[in-house]
Amino acid sequence: MPTDVLMPALSPTMEEGKLSRWLKKEGDAVKSGDVIAEIETDKATMEVEAVDEGVLARILVPEGAEGVKVNTPIAVIAAEGEDASAAATPAGTAKAETTAAKPDAGEAARDEAPRRPAAPVQADMELPEGVKTVSMTVREALRDAMAEEMRLNENVFVMGEEVAEYQGAYKVTQGLLQEFGARRVVDTPITEHGFAGLGVGAAFAGLRPVVEFMTFNFAMQAIDHIINSAAKTLYMSGGQISCPIVFRGPNGAASRVAAQHSQDYSSWYSHVPGLTVIAPFTAADAKGLLKAAIRSPNPVVFLENEILYGQSFPVPDVEDWIVPIGKARIARPGEHVTIVAWSHAMFHALEAAETLAGDGIEAEVIDLRTLRPLDAETIVESVRKTGRCVVVEEGWPQAGMGAEISARIMEEAFDYLDAPVTRVSGKDVPMPYAANLEKLALPSAAEVVEAARAVCYR
Amino acid sequence: MTKKPASASSSANATAARSTARTRGGRRAPATARKTAEADMAADVKTASPPALSREEELEAYRVMLLIRRFEEKAGQMYGMGLIGGFCHLYIGQEAVVVGMHMATKEGDQNITGYRDHGHMLVMGMDPKGVMAELTGRRGGYSRGKGGSMHMFSTEKKFYGGHGIVGAQVPIGAGIAFANRYQNNGAVCLAYFGDGAANQGQVYETFNMAELWKLPVVFIIENNRYAMGTAVSRASAQTDFSKRGVSFNIPGEQVDGMDIRAVKEAGERAVAWARDGKGPYILEMQTYRYRGHSMSDPAKYRTRDEVEKMRTEHDAIEQARQRLLGEHGLSEDELKKVDADIRRIVNEAADFATHDPEPDPSELWTDVTLPHDGPRA
Ligand SMILES: Cc1ncc(C[n+]2csc(CCOP(=O)(O)OP(=O)(O)O)c2C)c(N)n1
Ligand SMILES: [Mg+2]
Hints:
The complex is a heterodimer. By secondary structure, chain A is an alpha/beta fold. Helix content of chain A is 30%, strand content 21%.
């Protein structure tokens, strides 16, 4: 059957072009790949290649023609010995056919984008009354979480800089090499981009890597794999490839380590669909959430905090302590103002609540625990009761978590607000080294108290 | 392609001995190392005289190379008709690389590559209909229309993408190899990337880890001489890519990537090396893309003569065709049947991809995250 050669589009936006030159003439034999013509747009000159073998039977658009619409037949190629006239396709037919072939579901999609379905929330497993607890540090809780999950699942392994022989730069992986051996506790070279990508590949292929970054400051070298490779592949593969991986390590300001070693990445990662972002405060949450993260089939960014590692908290002494991902915790109930915080900033929130209580202001303190998915429901419910909200974060204010939370409250509880949502955040500067300046750059309990008083008009 | 168990291991040692093209870190005499890159290229690639393929192997290789060529031509045509959007990178000219490498592997071995990925999928036995329908963004596509030309996967066929960030597939491929070693499953991962990608830092981070941990991965650098409009010599201080592993002690070879026989032979050696637990291996495939980088490439960086010369003198499909007609004694008619069969497959794929509906609008929200307490995909 003779085939039409159509005016091609050179880019998704091209609608018409000039047929500048024919390189073959009627009657010439052509084979697939031969350049038969040149066309021009405002951007470029391009060659038109034959896609079939045969004879250039007819040229339908003459050399020099301008404004030739994309998809117009410009020539006819017939097989050897075939009757060329049989291919007298009227111009425009092919175009019409193409358009007709395009399903219109796409138009519908643009007109009325479907609403995002509600995310399924995991069943809560709150601490039963009177359960026995043991006191342990956040560091020990994290280590136990990894060790327990490694005992349960052969596919779980830990990798990162100094995680094995050195026992962890911050001793979080202490004892893991001794129990699980070098096959499952892997010291890597200093090569964040490379080992993050390698971890993603291992996760694609069936393993469950726990990738430790010495601190999240260094994960900026690896962020391409965290976002482009880990977070997006489930979607890009139409649900075929999951990436069960945990990227964990200390995040945020430590103490006196200056600008390059003191950044909070909470809002960076929480921006990304496909990622789950967790930032626990207590040891119980650190343990229960890390175990949940390792079991999750999704890529999880698990933001720890160096200052919290040595802090002790009661941890339930139960067989398999799991904390559900995506649920905030009311750390202190109250009725006058809601204070939202997470990770290390919880110290400021709780201290401020204590001070405020002395003045008769009962603050409700919410520990977010998971930053993505954000438990907006718990926040909104609290704000409906208190009518006021202060968000405490150690990161920078612009496009930060506080900005997001105030937007959500504005969208979902505007009518309940008695005062503007207020942010207490890290100052909008790189972290200074000098002790006094560093202190000034970070949020404090005093600032939280001041903000809470202001929104309570007291 | 149908697969047979690899018997590469024993023959590999024999062929390795007479190969002169290999580079092994630190073992080369200084005098040899001072040779110019161009001299190396000529010497290394021309001295090889690859062993002949059997009639069946040659015919199957021809069939799959032709499938890729015709599929890509059709994709180009459909792009021109506006049925395919965005970026579309065609593999025309490079077919012998994936087909030869695939012949050197066995069932269970994995493939990963960048965005120029259609050939890599077809060679793994992925359905041309599903691939073409992904190009057109339809629900029957491998990623249900959500990935497009650059992002397709098949866990069943062991194809791990389809990656749009230049070089990202290299550590991911090593990670797949890491899982192979961890699970001791005997599989080898083939990680393909371009001459341009070979200048990415993460490639060298990966080389280091792969050799350090002796991962079963073969790094295949598809040197098609250009990264978009940049010729290799304008971007690379060391243009002999087989040497890029020297400082990590990874052996490397330059291979005539336009000769299916040479690719298969070197591939068998490299795959056997990796499968035997000796670690990674680098193959620089000297190849050429006939078409533009993507569809909207005005191709001002090279002459038409250069393209024409490669096409007429080195085309892998034409070479295989001549050998089939000559030493293998097939008739024109027999080959015409193969051609017709391929055309039918490609036309069916195009037809399916044209008429399959777009994804249901509800697909916008699916496959973002899985239930946290549920199974992995
Ligand atoms: C990190 C990154 N930088 C730039 C690009 C844009 N880009 C896409 S392909 C390409 C050229 C790559 O050339 P090469 O590795 O030789 O592969 P080839 O296209 O020749 O197959 C560039 C610069 C990208 N996709 N990713
Ligand atoms: Mg290239």
